[in-house]
Amino acid sequence: MTTGEKPPGNWGLSPEVRESMRLHRIQRALDAEDWTTAMVEAEELLDEQPLHLEGLQLLGRALRGEGSRAVALLVYQQLVDQFGDLDEHLYGLADARFHTCDLPGCVEVARELVRRDGADGSYHFLLARALEHLGGHGSEAVSHYTAAYQLDPEVYRLPLPVSEDDWNTALELATERLIPALQAFWEDIPVYLVRLPPLERLLKTTPPRSPAITGLYLGDPPELEEELDQRRPEGLEIYTDNLLRILDLEEMVDELQLIFELNALDWLGLRALEDLEEAP
What strands lie across the sheet with 191-194, from one edge to the other? Predict the structure, then answer.
């Protein structure tokens, strides 16, 4: 079989085709929740075209999905400044402000989104969360939570009523699921049920922890590795209002187990349970 002679001159994909292929790869990574790949591809595109509208939009979505809200805040502010206050840009900006503890800034933008489109449950829900954590706006927060639920009850749930016995049962089941090393880590450490995380605690880190956090240890991890076996958290706070939109007790147990695991790993400076099992 012959293919004929190679055409003279250089051959390659046009810039437009390369750009289209890259955008497709980014979108495919986002659909698969492969945030790292999406971010890398978007950043490479933006290295070539720093003000590429779709590239910035996709990068913002990837950063929000990955949890890098402080960087997402910069991206969405740039989108608003360079390309205008499109609803998508404002929602990304409001979301990033919420998760970086700029609650007044989030409320300002979320109110504008609700004014523009009161039929979008995500706008009501974000505004309700910011108002609830800001304090002093309880009735208004409830009204927006209710509006979000009425618009999409499958996504935006009303608070699940949980009794003290339910909490105790869920906590017991969650700790029973932990690997032995984590059961030993949390043994005799008190657990406190708190409505919402105190803002001052969230602001102790750079960037701040998100107001949506569901649990946080008390105390500061030791700086020296040799002290890890001697010091443990003073307690663990569970933020009940951030958990009460979970549908059933089984989901609650799953989330509580994750809280115990992630807080222990953070205290120990580890990234995964496998690291704990391999530690000497």
Answer: 191-194, 235-239, 215-218
